[in-house]
Design goal:
It contains 9 helices and 14 strands. The chain is of the alpha/beta class and 220 residues long. Helix 6 links the parallel strand 3 and strand 4. It starts with a helix and ends with a strand.
Length: 220
């Protein structure tokens, strides 16, 4: 009877299944330098950036640091947007946007980290407390149904959490190599974003798994 009662306890089977899925997820052991990441899946990132750049005039958006989010910035610079405000901690993205007519650029203050080409740390987190954006585009190192969104280091995670907290809508943007991958530091659950924009190489099974975990997927 005791064994039978234990087997009926809710959540035990689902917890075992979740543990198995996390174990099966790829682990990100080392994140390549920015320049190397920028040329990896470059065409896929360009398409993701173009799809993400369909924003409404007058919006305030936050662009996270990263090579895919940078493509969002480049797509915004190449299109015409009236009265658009972009808040970003990504230094290359700020440089690409700062002379674009109709786009006001606000650079997040903080510690400039060369490896990420971004401002990070407590000052960046504090800086973001002053804003509330219509939309944020979030870069991630891993997307997993159980581990959620993850990144390679905790300094980046702190800023990403602040970005999520200060946007009405969050869109995660990443190429398909990050799906079913888990990096060192957890950003948050998949429900923190309303949509994942990724490339067409994502399998139907992976798309369904993420959707069941609460994250709709759009392949471009």
């Amino acid at each position: 009877m005791v064994a039978a009662e234990r087997s009926k306890r809710p959540g035990r089977a689902s917890k075992r299944a979740a543990t198995a899925r996390v174990t099966q997820a790829r682990r990100l052991e080392h994140e390549p330098p920015y320049a190397e990441r920028a040329i990896t899946f470059a065409e896929e990132k360009r398409r993701i950036g173009q799809a993400a750049a369909m924003v409404r005039p007058g919006e305030t958006i936050i662009l996270d640091a990263g090579t895919t989010t940078h493509e969002v910035g480049l797509a915004l610079a190449a299109s015409s947007h009236a009265s658009l405000t972009v808040v970003t901690n990504a230094l290359p993205t700020a440089a690409a946007l700062m002379e674009t007519p109709g786009i006001e650029v606000i650079v997040v203050g903080g510690h400039a980290q060369g490896r990420r080409r971004a401002t990070l740390g407590p000052l960046a987190v504090e800086f973001l407390q002053s804003f509330h954006a219509d939309r944020a585009f979030l870069g991630v190192s891993g997307v997993d149904a159980d581990a959620g969104f993850t990144a390679a280091d905790f300094d980046a995670v702190q800023v990403k959490r602040a970005i999520i907290a200060h946007a009405a809508e969050v869109v995660a943007v990443t190429d398909s190599s990050k799906i079913a991958q888990v990096a060192f530091a957890r950003i948050g659950p998949l429900r923190d974003a309303s949509l994942l924009l990724t490339d067409r190489s994502v399998s139907s099974d992976a798309e369904r798994t993420l959707a069941e975990a609460g994250l709709p997927v759009q392949r471009v």
